[in-house]
Amino acid sequence: YAASDLVFAFKELKKVYKEKYPQDRIRVIFGSSGKGYSQIVNSAPFDIIFSANELYVKKLEEKGLTVSPIKLYAYGKIVLWTRKDSEIDVKKGINVLLDKKVKKISIANWKHAPYGVAAKECLEYYNLFEKVRDKLIVGENIAQTAQYAESGAVDVGIIALSLALSDRLKMEGIYYLLSEKCYSPIRQAYAVLKHAKEDKERFDTAMRFFNFISSKEAKKILKKYGFSLPEN
Amino acid sequence: MIEIDIEKKLIGAQGKFNLKFSFSSDKNTFLSIFGKSGSGKTTILRIIAGLEKADRGKIVVNNKVWLDTEKGINIPPQKRNVGFVFQNYALFPNMTVLENILFAMNKKDVKKALEILKDVELEPLKDRYPNTLSGGQQQRVALARAIARNPEILLLDEPLSSLDFSIRFKLQDLIKKLHQKFQLTTILVSHEPQEVIKLSDVVVHIENGKILKVGNPLDIFKKKEVSAKFSFFGYVVDIKKADILYLAVINIGTDIVEVALTEDDIKDIKIGDRVLVASKAFNPIIKKAPLREP
Amino acid sequence: MIEIDIEKKLIGAQGKFNLKFSFSSDKNTFLSIFGKSGSGKTTILRIIAGLEKADRGKIVVNNKVWLDTEKGINIPPQKRNVGFVFQNYALFPNMTVLENILFAMNKKDVKKALEILKDVELEPLKDRYPNTLSGGQQQRVALARAIARNPEILLLDEPLSSLDFSIRFKLQDLIKKLHQKFQLTTILVSHEPQEVIKLSDVVVHIENGKILKVGNPLDIFKKKEVSAKFSFFGYVVDIKKADILYLAVINIGTDIVEVALTEDDIKDIKIGDRVLVASKAFNPIIKKAPLREP
Amino acid sequence: MESIDFNPFFLSLKLGFVTTVLLFFIGIPLGYFIAYSKVRFKSVFEALIALPLVLPPTVLGFYLLLLFNKRGLLGSLWEKISGHQLAFHFEGLVAASLIFSLPFMVHPLISGFKSVDRSLIEASYTLGKTKLQTLFRVILPNMKPSIITGIVLTFAHTIGEFGVVLIVGGNIEGETKVVSIAIYDAVESLDYASAHIYSAILIAISFFTLLTVYILNKRFEV
Amino acid sequence: MESIDFNPFFLSLKLGFVTTVLLFFIGIPLGYFIAYSKVRFKSVFEALIALPLVLPPTVLGFYLLLLFNKRGLLGSLWEKISGHQLAFHFEGLVAASLIFSLPFMVHPLISGFKSVDRSLIEASYTLGKTKLQTLFRVILPNMKPSIITGIVLTFAHTIGEFGVVLIVGGNIEGETKVVSIAIYDAVESLDYASAHIYSAILIAISFFTLLTVYILNKRFEV
Ligand SMILES: Nc1ncnc2c1ncn2[C@@H]1O[C@H](COP(=O)(O)OP(=O)(O)OP(=O)(O)O)[C@@H](O)[C@H]1O
Ligand SMILES: Nc1ncnc2c1ncn2[C@@H]1O[C@H](COP(=O)(O)OP(=O)(O)OP(=O)(O)O)[C@@H](O)[C@H]1O
Ligand SMILES: [Mg+2]
Ligand SMILES: [Mg+2]
Question: pTM of the prediction?
Answer without folding.
Answer: 0.86
